[in-house]
Amino acid sequence: MQKLFAFLTLALLLSVTFFAQHTGMSAENLYALLIAMAAYVTFAMVKSNRQESSDE
Question: What is the domain extent for residue 51?
Answer without folding.
Answer: 2-55
